[in-house]
Structures are given as structure tokens and as C-alpha cells.
Amino acid sequence: MIDHSLIKLVHVSCAGLSLLGFTLRAILMLKHSPLLKQQWVRTVPHLVDSTLFFSGLWLAYNLHQYPGTSPWLTAKLLALLAYIVFGAMALRGTTATLRHLSLLLAYLCFAYIVSVALSKTPVPW
Ligand code: HEM
User: Could you read off the pLDDT of 49-92 as tens digits, one per residue?
Assistant: First the structure.
């Protein structure tokens, strides 16, 4: 049985790496860099985000708290969906205004997800 605190460490580390990876790609987007289209630049974040997601599910299973029954996990999952959508639009949106607005909204979603994770309530303010 793998220790809960170890999975939590993996989860929190992947959360940090996800934010770092998103920020680096956002910088490439703002600089109109062709690097953004490189295969590895697109693949590595998927590996990090999948590990983040599955370690989160593992933690939820360990705590017997599930999206749909625990309001904070439901809020976190919905905010994660919004983060994915705004994140994709920030990197691939058709106009600069759409990309910049989506970038801001993606960061707000991420901040909300972390606040919900720390407070374990859907209304952390
Ligand atoms: C962008 C996505 C995510 C971020 C940034 C994130 C961030 C975090 C952070 C920072 C913590 C640690 C909170 C603390 O120190 O008490 C945490 C805990 C947790 N996360 Fe996530 N998370 C994300 C996605 C998910 C997903 C998809 C799930 C599962 C549906 C999930 C389930 C959990 C659970 C159950 C805990 C509590 C662990 C515990 O207190 O022992 N997370 N998350």
C-alpha cells in the first residue's frame, strides 16, 4: 500500500509542474515562438496533467471523498475543466484578445483550485 502522504507529495509537485509548464507555454505564446508547436512541448504537459489528475483521484479514493458527493471536490473538478478549456484557448485561441483573456481566466481558475484544495470548501473566501 503506497503511503497517502507520498501520493499527496506527487500530486502537489505535479500541481506546481503543471503551473510552471503552463506559464512557460504562455510565455512562448506571447513571444509567438515556433517552439510552442514542437511535439515534446505539447506532450510533456499531458504527462504531468494526467499524473496530477490520477493522483488526485487516488487521494480522493483514500479519503473516501468523491466528486458529486463532496462539494469541494465537485467544485475542484469543475474548475479543473474550466482551467483546461481556458488553458487551451490561451495557447491556441484565434485572436490575441481571446488568448490574453483566456490566460487571465486560466490563472484565476488555477488559484481557485488551489484555494479549494487548501480550505476543502467550494467557497474559500
Ligand atoms: C489543476 C488541478 C489540481 C490542483 C492545482 C490541485 C492542487 C492540490 C493541492 C495544492 C493540494 C494540497 C492541499 C493541502 O495541502 O491540504 C491538493 C489536495 C487534494 N487534491 Fe488536488 N489538485 C488538482 C486536481 C485534483 C483532482 C482532479 C482531484 C480528484 C478529483 C484532486 C483531489 C485532491 C484531494 C482528495 C486532495 C486532498 C489530499 C489530502 O488532504 O490528504 N485534485 N490538491
Answer: 999 999 999 999 999 999 899 999 999 999 999 999 999 999 99
Angle at 82 between CA 95 and CA 4, to 5 degrees: 140
**Average pLDDT along the chain:** 96
| Max CA pair span of the chain | 49
CA dihedral (9, 86, 105, 8) in degrees, to 10, reads: -10
Q: Is 68 in the pocket of ligand 1 (CB under 6 A)?
A: no
Q: Which atom of ligand 1 is nearest to the CA of 18?
A: 1
Q: What is the C-alpha separation between 112 and 85, in angstroms, rounded? A: 15
The average pLDDT across 89-118 equals 97
| Grid coordinates of 91 | 495557447
Ligand 1 near 84 CB (within 6 A):
no
Every domain of the chain and the residues it spans: 4-119
